[in-house]
Amino acid sequence: MDTKLWDLLPPACLAKSTLWIGGEWYEAADSGTFAVSSPIDDSALLLASRAQAADVDRAVRAAGAAAASWANNGSMRAGVMRSIADEIRGHAQELGVIETLDSGRPISETAGASIEHAAGLFDYYAGLADKLHGSSVPMGNEATAIVEREPFGVIGAISAWNYPLENAATKIAPIIACGNTMVLKPAEQSPLVTLLLAQLMQKAGLPDGVANIITGFGPEVGTPLITHPLVSKISFTGSTATGRRVAAAAGEALKSVVLELGGKSPMLVFGDADLSRAASAAVFSAFKNAGQTCTSCARVLVVRPILDHFTALCRAAAENLRVGDPFDPTTQIGPIISAKQLARVRQLMSGLGRAQDCHPGFHPVPGGHFFPPTIVTKFAPDSDFARQEIFGPVMALHAFDTDEEAWQLANDTEYGLAASVWTSSIHRAEQARRLLVSGIVWINCVHTLSAGTPLGGHKASGIGSEYGLEAAEQYMKTKTTVTMSKGWNSPFA
Ligand code: NAD
Questions:
Q1: Where does the pLDDT of residue 362 fall: very low under 50, low under 70, confident under 90, or very high at 90 and above?
Q2: Cβ-based neighbours of 51, under 8 Å, separated by 6 or more
Q3: How many angstroms does the Cα of residue 482 sit away from the middle of ligand 1?
Q4: Considering only the top CATH level, what class is 5-261+461-479?
Q5: Alpha-carbon 101 to chain mean position
Q6: 276-301 b/e with 16+ CB inside 10 Å = b?
Q7: For the structural domain made of 266-443, what CATH number should be given?
Q8: Which atom of ligand 1 sits closest to the CA of residue 216?
Q9: What is the mean pLDDT of the chain?
């Protein structure tokens, strides 16, 4: 490891102080640590602080102390958030290197599109921060209701490992734009880039305590964060199984939740589609970030007469994907995040009784958690493979015979996060929009998103939205004040 790389991270992080609380770096109160390793070759990267309830309490109190002044100054919020966007763009290479090292995502993405996406979120919500105001409701001649949107105060956020910088920006930008302060726990597998983001936010002038970052494990941080009396709302991104536990704990404490959870998203390919574009879209969606994308449309439903041809197109495109060292700028697919996740992918694939596809472009780094892009055409419809989110580079192709069967198969899942539909028929496109139970429906495109495009799961894929005005709405609460100009007379009088 090039020691200069560590100059990118706050120096305190090297001394195991990875809790960023009130603008200072701390060790865990009990000095506990955990090892963070790289999925590229399993090399040790850092000993991070392993936060416990006492550390959560300290972070929440720091957020609480910063809440009032942050809530009261929308134009300051807007200015600071624009500076954060500038810092992100100005440190694209450093952020990319750290994220690639920690998550295994190719450097072409982490120092490229990811940077613009993360910076764009701060810009987008900066535009909102100084425009949040209420409305008034006339109530006859003598009374007026003023309806205001207030911040919640301190929000607890917990995030997933798959797109660490973008996941952090997706939580932080709308939460702080609306005048809240927060405590964020990044995933234990890939916390490093969020620590670098903390340093950049501080440099941009974010007041101490507005955002606090604590590293650690799920239940050890999650439970005290969710149940802390000063935390008013929870925003969670992760698996549906964990989301259910988070929602249960928040429900017990009567706190509202935003849940961005898993998916098993379909891609539907009709005979009238541009098949070459559809096949590239299927391959991109199934294999980008080694399949570790919540909106991956890796469940590909193809009308039967073109299934063999379409499968051949996908195989040809997949064989040529460059899989290997994510620091090579030509690499398209890196490793899977951990040995545990790789084992899960293998376990879901076991018993399928088929050889893996041939991959001239598959060059795994020794010791890394690599899996070749794999296309599966024969499996039992009720198997775990067919029903569960795989979160690995695996595409499954199914046939359908009629349009009705296509909609029915697409919706036949507990999830409802995303869907991609390929057709040249405007009628089918309209049917897809009406009939698919999904937070987002892409017609003749896939993964086309912007900071302003709401994305939220239906069914077991979640509650609430990320991005757009919808995300901001859920981080504000409504207060109504009714004022009478004349004296109020009791009906009992
Ligand atoms: P995970 O549920 O295992 O962990 C997510 C986060 O929850 C981590 O920070 C973890 O430490 C924490 N956690 C674990 N147990 C907890 C508990 N009991 N209480 C509180 N927090 C707890 O998920 P993962 O494996 O990190 O991420 C992959 C999942 O995330 C996939 O299902 C993917 O689809 C989903 N995801 C969804 C979106 C979306 O926008 N819908 C985006 C990214 C990822």
A1: very high
A2: 19, 28, 59, 185, 214, 215, 216, 220, 221
A3: 42
A4: alpha beta
A5: 19
A6: eebbebbbbbbbbbbbbbbbbbbbbb
A7: 3.40.309.10
A8: 11
A9: 95
